[in-house]
Amino acid sequence: MDSPDEKNKQTPQKILRDVMRLCADCDTCRTMMEEDCAFFLELYKLWDQEHEDGIPITEEQLRYLAELCTLCGLCPCQKIPMDVMEAKSRFIEREGMPLATRLLNDVPRMARLCGAFPDLVKALQSNKVSGPLLRKALRLHPDRDLPSFPKENFFQWAKRRGLDRQRSGNHQVAYFAGCTAGYLFPAIGRSVVEILEHNGATVFVPLQQCCGMPFLAEGDRKRTLELAEANMKKLLETCQAGNDLIYSCPTCGFFLKKLLKEKAYYSETFQKSVNAADDEFKVPAPEKGEGQFWHLKKNMYHHLLKDDGYFASIDPMARIELADHLFDFGVYLKNLLDKGKLATDFAPIPKRMAYFAPCHLREQKMGRPYLDLLKLIPELDIEAVGSDYDCCGMGGVFGFKEHFHEKSLDLGEPLMKKFHAHNPQAIVTDCMSCRLQFKHCLPYPVYHPVEVLAMAYGGSASSE
Description:
By secondary structure, the chain is α/β, with parallel strands linked by helices. 52% of the residues lie in helices and 9% in strands. The longest helix has 20 residues, at 221-240.
C-alpha cells in the first residue's frame, strides 16, 4: 500500500498501469463491458498487446487510454474511473489544457460567445471555407456541429421574472439548473418553474456556476475544485435559508451528490460526528434503515478507508450536507406525490413515447421516478427502452470530438436499434447529452420529462 507521499509522487503513467493491472487481475469487465465502454476495450487490447505479444505499451497509448474514459458511471468499481481522472489531472498539470478542450467544455463561455455573435457563429459553421477551420480549431468531428444557443437563456429569463431574488413563501424551492438547461435548452428550466409554481412553490434560482463535471472529466483539477466549492457554499447558504434544493440534470446530480461525497464518510470529522469508537469505522447503511451503520474494524480497514480522494481538500461535512439536501427533481416530485401534495390535474397527451433512463441517473440508484410520474398522464403511452448497461455513447461533449465521434456512434448503436424497433412518436430522457446524441442519430423529437409534465399541466415552456 502506497503512503500518501508516495501516492502524490506517482506519475499518470504509473496510475494508469495500476488501473490496468487491477482490471486485468479481475477481468470481469473484459466481457461485461465489451460493448458498452471504449475505455475497457482499449485497456484489454493494450494489456494483451504487452503480455501476449510482447509489444510495450507507450506513453502515448496510455494518454489515449485515459482520454477514452468519459466518467459515465457504468464502472462496477468506483475506484477505477476516479483513478483515471487522477491520471488525467496529472497529465494536464504537466502539459496544460488544450484551448480547444477548454472552450468546448465551458458551456457558459460558449453561450456568451455565441450569444454575442450569433450571426458570426452561424456563418462560421455553414461557410464552406471557415466552417471546417472552426471545427478543426475546436477539434470537432466534421459530421458534428456546435449546438445552437437560444437568444434568451434560462438564467436571463429567470432574472427577468425576479426568480434570482429570494422571496418568502410557505414552500420555497431553490433550483440548480446546470449548464444544459441554463444555456442550451432553457425550456427545461422554464418547465421546472412552471411545475413548481403550479404546485404552489416559491421558486428561487440562486447564483450558480457549472457543476464541474465537464472539467473533472477532462482533468482540470483546479477549475473542478473551484466550481465545486463555489456552488457548495451558495447552495448550502440557500438551504440554510429554508429552501428545498433540486436539480434537473442527472449529471449535475451525479457530480454533486455522489462523486463529491466520495470517501467523505471516512474522514475523522465525520467519524467523530457519529461517535465512532476508537477501534471502528461507522459507515452509513441506508439499506438497513435510516440512521443505521455498518461497523468496520479499524485495524483491518484503516489503510483503505481514508478521505484521500479527488475532493479531499473540501470540507467533508459540507460535502455530505450538500448531498443529503440536494434532490433530483423527479425524486422530489415523486415524494410530493407519495405525501398527497402533488397536483395531478394532468390534461391528456395522446402520444406514444419511449423513456430512456441515462447512465448518471441509474448510477444514483434512485429508480425511475419520472417514468412513474409520466404514467399518471391520461392517454400517454410510455415505456422504458434500454437496459442497465445501454448508453447513448455521447459522454458529455466527448461525442463531438474528432477522435471520439466514431466510438460514440458505435457505443450508442445497440440503443439506437432498440429505439428504431420501438418506433415511438417521441423520446423522453433526463440527460441532455443523450438528447444531443439522439437528435444526431434518430428521427424522433426528444423531450426532458419535465417538458412533458409541464405540457400536461397546460404549460408552454417546451420548444421541441
